[in-house]
Amino acid sequence: xxxxxxxxxxxxxxxxxxxxxxxxxxxxxxxxxxxxxxxxxxxxxxxxxxxxxxxxxxxxxxxxxxxxxxxxxxxxxxxxxxxxxxxxxxxxxxxxxxxxxxxxxxxxxxxxxxxxxxxxxxxxxxxxxxxxxxxxxxxxxxxxxxxxxxxxxxxxxxxxxxxxxxxxxxxxxxxxxxxxxxx
Length: 183
Hints:
- The protein is mainly alpha-helical.
- It folds into two domains: 3-50, Homeodomain-like (Arc Repressor Mutant, subunit A), CATH 1.10.10; 53-182, Orthogonal Bundle (Tetracycline Repressor, domain 2), CATH 1.10.357.
- The chain is 77% helix and 0% strand.
- The chain contains ten helices and no strands.
- It is elongated.
- Residues 23-42 bind DNA.
- Keywords: DNA-binding, Repressor, Transcription, Transcription regulation.
- Pfam families: TetR_C_6, TetR_N.
- InterPro entries: BetI_C (IPR039538), Homeodomain-like_sf (IPR009057), HTH-type_TetR-like_transc_reg (IPR050109), HTH_TetR (IPR001647), Tet_transcr_reg_TetR-rel_C_sf (IPR036271).
- This is TetR family transcriptional regulator C-terminal domain-containing protein.
């Protein structure tokens, strides 16, 4: 079994059970491989946690890659929707939430979390600066920080409190604030 297939099993476990459900034994069982095979590719629990975070990092990379390709307002609108999970079962959203919780107690995870969050924030700031060239960089940067914090909070609400805030409501709130930031 390939490293990628084992990594996929790690992501599935974190999405289903959080970081607390992650163990070499659980990954081996889900992937249908021997424990030694998992340990060969991911020798520590921290390595498995970092592997799970790749799904979120891939989203950040897609955002960065696409940030210069189209109208910045259209990109911001699309990204605002993208960064709110599409459902309670969203794998990327559930992994991000588990990762954020683990970051509170694990410095290595916290460092990776901060790097990814910083990349997303910088991409949003660049798009805001392109959409509103009259803004000083510091204002675009502050607006991006605010927008990403709002999106994080709305994402948690969608994943944890779906009866209180639906995906549609979360996206309406985010789009309304984005429109305010763009005027």
